[in-house]
Amino acid sequence: xxxxxxxxxxxxxxxxxxxxxxxxxxxxxxxxxxxxxxxxxxxxxxxxxxxxxxxxxxxxxxxxxxxxxxxxxxxxxxxxxxxxxxxxxxxxxxxxxxxxxxxxxxxxxxxxxxxxxxxxxxxxxxxxxxxxxxxxxxxxxxxxxxxxxxxxxxxxxxxxxxxxxxxxxxxxxxxxxxxxxxxxxxxxxxxxxxxxxxxxxxxxxxxxxxxxxxxxxxxxxxxxxxxxxxxxxxxxxxxxxxxxxxxxxxxxxxxxxxxxxxxxxxxxxxxxxxxxxxxxxxxxxxxxxxxxxxxxxxxxxxxxxxxxxxxxxxxxxxxxxxxxxxxxxxxxx
Length: 333
What we know:
Layout: E1 2-7, H1 15-34, E2 41-47, E3 52-54, E4 59-61, E5 65-66, E6 75-78, H2 85-90, H3 93-104, E7 108-111, H4 116-120, E8 129-130, H5 137-143, E9 148-149, E10 155-158, E11 161-164, H6 170-181, H7 184-194, H8 218-229, H9 237-243, H10 248-259, H11 263-281, H12 286-292, H13 298-309, H14 313-320, H15 322-332
Parallel strand pairs: 1-2, 1-6, 2-5, 6-7, 7-11, 8-9
Antiparallel strand pairs: 3-4, 10-11
């Protein structure tokens, strides 16, 4: 029998990702037993103390065992952390060292949402792909510049290390792991039982782009401000760099270093974020919204919109517009 360890870190972390992981793998074991097979995993919660309180003591988790008692485990799940990352990292040095030793001994590790901060603190993610909650991207890039952060991705899978995007998307990571360790049939059963959509690959639809301005490059900040104030215009990156008296190549390099995006990517994200809000809150047509954010070619607008959100403008409008929801309800009624 394999061994699954769900970590219960010290400090602020998210109880739902611990409970959710435990329930899904427990159900996968039950499904396997009904088919006349033995449990695939022995599932244990492990930490460095006998209990950990959540939400100001409203809930308490009592790990089955201390991590020091686990010489070897096959799969480790790190739950989501709350947003006080630095404090949690400092309070879990023993866990961080243990994770590193276990991986080097052959364990696979999966981090849920902002649990990627704890995983990245081991150094195991350096040079590897990683996802986390879209709202934590700037903090993550600042703390772990050697990690290849890919926040658009829902799940990354590289050399026995798995990460995922934000919040309850961890359920998709659990299905992914269940399919990998059990089989597709078991994953489908869990998907239907817990009513989780199978095979989601992106969290782009849910991302809210607010700009990356925690850097110290004043020239890049001026460029960002100009872009945001002139959304309705067709902005040339060449002209913008010239306006700021910076060579194009140097401008691109500084922009990427400061924001994680090229100037063109940033321009597109700002425009599409504005378009998303208009589609959510106004009765404007797709074409009207397109013109408002400086596009004149519907094909180009659709392509950029889909690249950033994962769906078309029409699909987005139908998904998030209240009137569309009401119309669907009336049809159903």
